[in-house]
From TrEMBL:
PANTHER family with a match to the protein in the record: 2-OXOGLUTARATE (2OG) AND FE(II)-DEPENDENT OXYGENASE SUPERFAMILY PROTEIN-RELATED
SUPFAM superfamilies reported in the protein's UniProt record: Clavaminate synthase-like
Keyword line: Dioxygenase, Flavonoid biosynthesis, Iron, Metal-binding, Oxidoreductase, Vitamin C
The Fe2OG dioxygenase domain, residue ranges: 196-296
Native organism taxonomy: Eukaryota, Viridiplantae, Streptophyta, Embryophyta, Tracheophyta
Top-level taxon of the source organism: Eukaryota
Gene3D superfamilies the UniProt entry points to: B-lactam Antibiotic, Isopenicillin N Synthase, Chain
GO biological process: flavonoid biosynthetic process
Name of the featured protein: Fe2OG dioxygenase domain-containing protein
Homology family: Belongs to the iron/ascorbate-dependent oxidoreductase family.
An annotated Gene Ontology molecular function: metal ion binding
Length: 336
């Protein structure tokens, strides 16, 4: 069964100025109606090169408690490496369809790795204006190179180098967040599985859309992950829900956007927020983003850390194996 890719739908739709009905959102979701147009509060930006480490730590913790999202600059990932990561990803999505389909997610696969289109089960049967590529990049024991593009030839080298940098940055941030809870620096890292935790790369490809006022690249969601580290291209589109409004996120070149995901929410017993966010699309330009999801391994049971639980602070979340949590969330099943 051939799956229709959004990139192909985009190519045919641009001549008609119309999009298929399944991409048209209800009025309560349409970005033209629901995006806040007044003065927009800025998502916190943290400069990790600030020599005042206590100030950096306070900023990371405050942003995670109040927003669940922040941007980091001077984060240690070379700007040139981010450019190369984006270049090899863009080159892959510009290849002929047959070449992209060679790393497609098998139709009957339980796992999400590979090139694909549909991911989330949506209540109203709507579709998101996006194609994607998933593959794990760390630890080496869980990397499956059959889902890594062979073209361009430098794709593997760039992603392997990026994996080392993104791992280092995530561990720095998890250490700060652990200490912000009054715990050992390793607490959250261990709560996500320690050395067995997995880093999943995703490339989102949002092609031009003739009706960006009606469609969404990705509908409103929180990430399944513990923490997500994302770099976008220069085309804006990320929106964050805060104080009952959808706000546009500012694009800062070379910044890494950090999302607190469901598992850190649950490990911290609700102290840190999981950010509700979505993606809009552009009429004329392709938006792309490269999130890396730091996730527990499938069998890891995640719930509030025991050190945080007391009579005054009872557990707010039920522990789940990550595979069961993911299945229940993606299939809209109860999580309590």
């Amino acid at each position: 069964m051939e799956i229709e890719r959004v990139q192909d739908i985009s190519s045919s739709s641009l001549h008609t100025e119309a999009i298929p009905l399944e991409f048209i959102r209800s009025e309560k979701e349409q970005p033209a109606i629901t995006t806040f147009r007044g003065p927009t509060p800025a998502i916190p930006v943290v400069d990790l090169s600030d020599p005042d480490e206590e100030s950096v730590a306070r900023a990371v913790v405050k942003a995670s408690e109040e927003w669940g999202i922040f941007q980091v600059v001077n984060h240690g990932i070379p700007t040139e490496l981010i450019k190369r990561l984006q270049e090899v990803g863009r080159t892959f999505f510009e290849l002929p369809s047959a070449e992209k389909e060679s790393v497609a997610k098998p139709v009957d696969a339980k796992d999400i790795e590979g090139y694909g289109t549909k991911l989330q089960k949506e209540v109203e049967g709507k579709k998101a204006w996006v194609d994607h590529l998933f593959h794990r990049i760390w630890p080496p024991s869980c990397v499956n190179y059959s889902f890594w593009p062979k073209n361009p030839p430098e794709y593997r080298e760039v992603n392997e180098e990026y994996a080392l940098h993104v791992k280092k940055l995530s561990e720095t941030l998890l250490g700060i967040l652990s200490e912000g809870l009054g715990l050992r620096r390793e607490a959250l890292r261990e709560g996500l599985g320690g050395d067995l935790a997995e880093y999943m790369m995703k490339i989102n490809y949002y092609p031009p859309c003739p009706r960006p006022d009606l469609a969404l690249g990705v509908p409103a969601h929180t990430d399944l992950s513990g923490i997500t580290l994302l770099v976008p291209n220069e085309v804006p589109g990320l929106q964050v829900f805060k104080d009952d409004h959808w706000f546009d996120a500012e694009y800062i070149p070379s910044a890494v956007i950090v999302h607190i995901g469901d598992q850190i929410l649950r490990l911290s017993n609700g102290r840190y927020k999981n950010v509700l966010h979505r993606t809009t699309v552009d009429k004329d330009r392709t938006r792309m983003s490269w999130p890396v999801f730091l996730e527990p391994h499938r069998e890891m049971i995640v719930g509030p850390l025991p050190e945080l639980i007391s009579d005054d602070n009872p557990p707010k979340y039920k522990p789940f194996a990550f595979k069961d949590y993911s299945y229940r969330k993606l299939n809209k099943l109860p999580l309590d």
